Amino acid sequence: MSAPVTLFGKEYPADGNTNTPPSIQAKVGRNLHLQKDHPLATLREIIETHFKGFTRIQPESPVVTVFQNFDELGFAPDHPGRSLTDSYYLNKEHMLRTHTSAHEVEAYKTGADAFLIAADVYRRDEIDSSHYPVFHQMEGMRHWDVTDVKQLTEQLRAENAKLAEELAACPIEITDISNVGPENPLQECHDPELATEMAQNLKHSLNGMIFKLFGHITADGQPLKVRWIDAFFPWTSPSFEVEVWYNDEWLEILGCGVVVQKTLERGGVGHKSGWAFGLGLERIAMVLFDIPDIRLFWSQDPRFLSQFKQGEITAFKPYSKYPPCYKDMSFWLPEETQEGIKPWHENDYCEVVRDVAGDLVENVTLIDDFTHPKTGKRSLCYRLNYRSMDRSLNNEEVNALQDKVVGRVVKEMGIEMR
Ligand code: DAH
């Protein structure tokens, strides 16, 4: 892939890192989270309504520098998210953001004290009903001038007491098994009492939001169960993850924490401290709107879109599913490194499948992984499940797609069909 990529009128010269195929470029600018009546737009709006008074930021282009996406936030140089198999690069310097956190520092620079960022984000991944290379996230941040520590601590204590009282009146059961301590510390540069109130403010604010979103799904008289656990993010400390009890398991909803002071300094607001969180909209919307397949969000079929109305959470009524068509593909992996061929990675394989067949592939599953005892050669077999959400596929059409996939993976990945 050596053609330069042009996005939002800007050309990014290609180099050895360029790995963003046209099928992904074509998704840029769709902005499902801004499309009236779309479930993602309703979810965004509910969250925005909860965080009243927060300044909204909607960065138009998903292109950020690698520095913004990773380094500025303190990601280690060898963090796996940086690899070409996991992220979409335009070139060595520019990439498609993998999370809305990539805009935190520039948001701090605007001088406001509370923000919400909603945007599309991009990650290379497997193909199944809950993974799609483009999805949407929201980031929230709030911070305060910490010049007068005592006064601010009192102010936050009072606000937190009020929030706690409001929550106490809601049927929500919050279990906090996070453990602020040596493994998940307060920052040394922070006054411990103040940092504790900030973390508390973060927790109350998010518990309130979660209750607004999920409160109604527990109509059977059970309180909504929410759990706080420890986490690690390079730009927050302490850091937490929040989970909601749904369908008999804990569903991870978001990551958050007290922002590392250095990150605020980078944004020119070293005299302020506060919290940040980030969440994925699709995962939550799939639960709230009962949407079984992440591809449906991208459907232009009126049978999907006409079911939803801005501001209303309603369960998706599935229309008839078209029959699936399975095609297996068995091949040997290259035995030794070949010039111009990268080491095998499933995400690269899925990228080709997506580039050829787009949303006509429902999932790609590894069904056999065999290493020949004598030769040591490794063979894989993948089952590709073709199914359109909007129409019936015929066998010739699917065979043509499958042939195209085979042709490309043989050429680009150095594999040998069995
Ligand atoms: N960006 C993180 C992700 O994509 C989510 C996140 C975690 C955002 C912690 C934050 C935060 O702002 O403080 O997984």
Automatic annotation (TrEMBL):
CDD domains: PheRS_alpha_core (cd00496). Residues 320-418 form the FDX-ACB domain. InterPro entries: aa-tRNA-synth_II, aa-tRNA-synth_II/BPL/LPL, Fdx_antiC-bd, Fdx_antiC-bd_sf, Phe-tRNA-synth_IIc_mito, Phenylalanyl-tRNA_Synthase. SUPFAM superfamilies: Anticodon-binding domain of PheRS, Class II aaRS and biotin synthetases. It is found in: Mitochondrion matrix. Its EC number is 6.1.1.20. SMART domains: FDX-ACB (SM00896). GO terms for cellular component: mitochondrial matrix. It catalyses: tRNA(Phe) + L-phenylalanine + ATP = L-phenylalanyl-tRNA(Phe) + AMP + diphosphate + H(+). Residues 1-20 are annotated as: Disordered. One of its GO terms (biological process) is phenylalanyl-tRNA aminoacylation. One of its GO terms (molecular function) is ATP binding. It is an enzyme of class 6 (ligase). Gene3D superfamilies: Bira Bifunctional Protein, Domain 2, Ferrodoxin-fold anticodon-binding domain. Keywords: Aminoacyl-tRNA synthetase, ATP-binding, Ligase, Mitochondrion, Nucleotide-binding, Protein biosynthesis, Transit peptide. Residues 41-318 form the Aminoacyl-transfer RNA synthetases class-II family profile domain. Its main location: mitochondrion. It comes from the Eukaryota. Is responsible for the charging of tRNA(Phe) with phenylalanine in mitochondrial translation. Belongs to the class-II aminoacyl-tRNA synthetase family. PANTHER family: PHENYLALANINE--TRNA LIGASE, MITOCHONDRIAL, PHENYLALANYL-TRNA SYNTHETASE. This is Phenylalanine--tRNA ligase, mitochondrial. It comes from Trichosporon asahii var. asahii (strain CBS 8904) (Yeast).
